[in-house]
Design goal:
The chain is an alpha+beta fold. The chain has a domain at 15-92 and 141-206: NADH Oxidase. It is built from nine helices and four strands, in the order H-H-E-H-H-E-H-H-H-E-H-E-H. The chain has helices spanning 4-13, 28-39, 58-65, 76-81, 96-108, 115-135, 139-160, 173-180, 214-217, and strands spanning 50-55, 84-91, 164-168, 187-196. A four-stranded antiparallel sheet has the order 1-2-4-3, sandwiched between helices. The longest helix has 22 residues, at 139-160. The chain is globular and about 60 Å long. The chain starts with a helix and ends with a helix. It binds flavin mononucleotide (FMN). Flavin mononucleotide binds next to strand 3.
Length: 221
Amino acid sequence: MLTAAAIADLATRRYTCKAFDPARRISPQDMAALKTLLRYTPSSVNSQPWHFLIAESAAGKESIAATLSGRYAYNASKVRAASHVVVLCARRDMDDAHLSALIEQETADGRFATPEARANQYNSRGFYADLHREQLRDAGLWMEKQVYIALGNLLLGAAALGLDACPMEGIDASAIDTALGLEARGLRCVLLVALGYRSGEDFNAALPKSRLPEAAVISEI
Ligand SMILES: Cc1cc2nc3c(=O)[nH]c(=O)nc-3n(C[C@H](O)[C@H](O)[C@H](O)COP(=O)(O)O)c2cc1C
């Protein structure tokens, strides 16, 4: 169990790394822990509408970095120098095949004592899937929101392991979809996270963090 002080320390110590040391690599043990964090991210009705591609090889990272030109060029060096780059993807559809895969997994994992319990879960998830697909027509946004929960988990987990990270929305997501063949896999790139260790050239490491005061963002009722 982490102490309250340790949690607060993680939140205030972690920061966005702007320059990675290309010589340092994250251990397989730490990467395994981060994969567990990604997989166990909570999501609305356990919908898990995501996939995470992890680029470790120079070729894998280069296929992403090559898409970061023009106004996104400032992020390319982070992708090239990082130890690993995670491509956080959302599904393109919350389709019936995915809903079936979810209920089968929950059944295999022993979540249901009775057929009724399974049917309730299937119907409840189906209600929300239909709500977003047919009424609100925001299924894509709904799935992207779940991906951002994984982002939060990943950033805090990386900090807990003493790793540095750079989340990146400054990307051409559709160029990454093309470069990595994501559309054919029913996926779309939402954002990237570069992971590794800061280099001595990271100007951001020495800058103080800046946040609005507590009273501006938290109220008691
Ligand atoms: C969703 C998201 C997208 C971001 N995109 C970029 C980016 O493309 N490039 C970059 O250098 N930093 C990016 N950042 C870093 C933010 O600027 C940074 O998190 C923010 O200024 C707070 O600073 P801190 O992370 O050091 O606490 C992004 C952060 C988030 C959460």
